[in-house]
Amino acid sequence: MTDLLRIGSSAMRAAYAQLQTTGQNIANAATPGYVRREVILEEQGDMGAEGYVGRGVNASGVRRAYDEFLTRESISNRSVSAQDGARGDALARLDRLFADPQTGLGASFDDVVGSFADLTTRPRDPATRSAVLQRIEQFAQRAGQLDGRILELRDGAQARMGSEIAKANDALRSLAEINRRIQDGRGAQAASNALLDERDRLLGDLNTVLRANATIGQDGRATVYSQRGEALVTGTSAVRLTLGPTDLDPTQLGVTVVRGNGTQVALQSTELGGSLSGLMRFATQDVDAARMRLGRLSAAVAAEVNAVQARGVDADGRAGEPLLAIGAARVTGATANTGAGQFNVQIADARQLQASDYELAFDGVQYTLTRLSDGEQRQFSSFPQDVDGLTLTPNGGAPAAGDRYLVRSASSFAAGMRSLQSNAARIATALPMASEPGPTNRGDVRIEALEVSSYGGPGTPPVTLTFTSAGTFDVSGGGTGNPVGLPYTPGMQLSYNGWTITMQGSPMVGDTLRIAPTQDPASDNRNARLLQAIGDARFVDGATVIDRYAELVGEVGSRTRSAQSSADMSLRLYEDAERARNEMSGVNLDEEAARMLQYQQAYQAAAKVIATANEMFRSLLEAA
Amino acid sequence: MRISTAYAQQLAIEGLQERQSQLLRAQEQLAGGRRVGVPSDDPVAAAEAEQLRSREARIESERRAASHAKHLLSGAENALSDASGVLQAARDALLASANGSLAPIDRAKFAIELRGLREQLLSVANRADGADGYVFGGQSASVVPFDASGTTYAPVGGTQVVGVEQVNPVRLDGRENFSAIRNGTGTGTENIFVQLDAAIAALEDPALPQSTVAQTTAGVIGSIDRATERLAQTRTLVGERLRAIDMHEQALESGSIEAQARMSELVDLDFTRGVAALVQHQTTYDAALRSYAQIARMTLFDYV
């Protein structure tokens, strides 16, 4: 009779444990990282007097409904999704900077060109001239502002890297703490299950920041490794991750692992994974690609406007002064450099500039210059060195082998862009020299082209060519020495006083040509026409400004689009993996409700067994 | 297959949010009328739209230059016509003065008339163009072309031009129209003001015999005819240029319409599609909400 009582009470205990577990499952249905629990039942076997009957049931433990493969799959997909998502979100902000074509830098440039066009129709009008300066100033401001906005986005990404690192450090510390508790405790089975849940949750959190794997040792402790095998948690100690300026470029932040013994290891973006990788890639590659293009565009426009301006003369007859300034390119040494070498960089030809900065490395004998946009390298051992429209020169000191430098070219130009002139009279609408055929000419000899290489000012002496026959001419005027009988051929060139003319046509005896300083430079529109021509000239590495700006817009758009579709895809993959994991480990409330009924019935049945045993016992007593 | 209740709830909520954001986006597109809001919506279209925007800006500049040239050349056409009218009056006066029976006192009356006509001609030659310059200002603009004698032409000869796709002159060369007209023999040039002055001097000189005066006026009439011919030629050129500008303006207009149409194709929303998309998103969001509300309510605990 006691056998039956024991069986009944073991069944009651088992059912009660199951009801408790179900309660726990229901209670934690929404707890992050909670893994559904199941009671492990074992039959208690024993041989009775009538042979094998058994002695009831034993709830031997509580098991987590856990599948290692599914959990790993979910965690690794979560990491990829965090990486793509972080970059996609950041790029979406960059994308928005280029949203409205009507207020973009391209439109601002076209406003400048439009004001040059108006200048050709009214070169003398002060309002028209002022409008040109205003447009130029707006263009310069917009370029600088756009660069500033992009930098703000980089700052934002770097700030987020900081908070992500803090999150990762918390997770690493907690993982080490769990190892300690596992080592110390050997606590109750349930507590251990809770620790395992917590560990998986922490690994998941860690993986949103950076990709990490855990291997579980014999003693139950986890060792956590980064993607590249750097141990992050070993036993009860965790490394610390720090965010700091990179060696070559202090404006960029890199992730460093600080080990327990104090040694430090830098982790590259590709070695990280997780949101850190996505944010770093945005902060370096994506931001740089946009800024470098913007910088090159700014430098090319400034150089071209200033060059045309320099070839002309302003309203007061003075040689045209520059209208635009850009930020100066410079070379900075890496913080780890041991030598004292310094270098200068200057623009030699803005038309050849590439949308990139450069790394200069010295190996003790040779220099290697790497273009950062595409990794193209060139080696040399002497200076000055011309590359991509830049000239590199030493600026004192000697570099040591292994020293590295950053040539900040394209990244510097847009930020410092500004307009230089506030006096509208300084716009050089005129060309310095003008030519005219004699009023009594009978032939069609004419001056096709008049180039001025050095302008001597309004006092430059006028020069007259007088044709003495169809094939000869005399020259008279200051600075010419008045030669006579020079042979004439159509298309020939002639230079005096800093100018060069190209003549065409057939002269008749007595025809003259006159070259003199422009007498009314305020009203001359010839150089204004050359300024206007900047609008469609292919001077930005072989393309027009608008072509290059459209390329920049398209490039930002494609980057964003492809990053967002990667993010969408990896999110789907993560969701699939997470769903699969949840199918195994998640709590279904309807299932728990059904189980609750089942266990309740089992409990009642067990109670009935005890009641039956009790009744039987009483019957026996009454019979006695 | 087990459905995790919490995860299913989360997915359902995420799904609802996604549908809601799609609905909002469709609404934004309809409200803004634009399909491409940010470059990533369609990077290729965004890049091309930038070039089309620029093309429109260029067309607008070119159109302003053409309109400027048209305005100035119309003024030039009037000036040329006025100058021809003055020359015709001078010719009539000279013909009348050539009457053999005129006394010196009568000749002097014609001289006075001619003097007035000469002044008129000079003022036409020096007419301002209303754009900081002079109709016959040559390459320069701000210098009064002729002095009182009509023999000194101050500007640089030639013409100022504007426009990129079509280059149009906006000022005429005063020399070839007044002060350096090819003469009768074709080997030199003559100045219409000097010629008129000669006729005036002859008419004013009572000592000159009528035959000498007639000889002079006959010569001057020849000069006036050549000058009139010259002005007529210039007028033809200006007229042709004005017609060319009209055609260019039409071409610019259609270029602009084309660019706008293409731009619209690229970035604007097709409203029929936009509305259809909105309705579709509305329906799916509504269905999602309803089904969620019904399914989420279902639980076994209601029956236990």
Structure keywords:
heterodimer, A: 624 residues, alpha+beta, five-stranded antiparallel sheet, 11 helices, 29 strands, 46% helix, B: 304 residues, mainly alpha, f41 fragment of flagellin, N-terminal domain, 2 domains, two-stranded antiparallel ribbon, 7 helices, rod-shaped
What does this structure look like?
The complex is a heterodimer of chains A (624) and B (304). Chain A has helices spanning 2-27, 68-97, 105-121, 126-185, 189-209, 269-272, 274-311, 410-413, 526-533, 545-585, 589-623; strands at residues 37-43, 47-48, 51-52, 57-64, 212-216, 222-226, 231-234, 237-238, 240-245, 253-258, 264-267, 324-325, 330-333, 343-347, 358-362, 367-371, 377-380, 385-387, 390-394, 404-408, 418-419, 433-437, 446-452, 463-469, 472-476, 486-487, 493-496, 499-504, 512-517. With 624 residues, chain A is an alpha+beta fold. Among the domains of chain A are: 2-66 and 585-623; 299-424, no CATH class; 432-517, no CATH class. Chain A has a 5-stranded antiparallel beta sheet with strand order 13-20-15-16-17. A 5-stranded antiparallel beta sheet of chain A has the order 22-29-24-25-26, with no helix packed on it. Chain A has a 4-stranded antiparallel beta sheet with strand order 5-6-7-8, covered by helices on one side. Chain A is elongated. The model of chain A has no long low-confidence stretch (mean pLDDT 92). Chain B folds into 2 domains: 54-263, f41 fragment of flagellin, N-terminal domain (Up-down Bundle), CATH 1.20.1330; 270-298. The longest helix of chain B has 58 residues, at 210-267. Chain B has a two-stranded antiparallel ribbon with strand order 1-2. A two-stranded antiparallel sheet of chain B has the order 3-4. Chain B has 304 residues and is mainly α. Chain B is rod-shaped and about 140 Å long. The interface between A and B is large, with 75 and 64 residues.
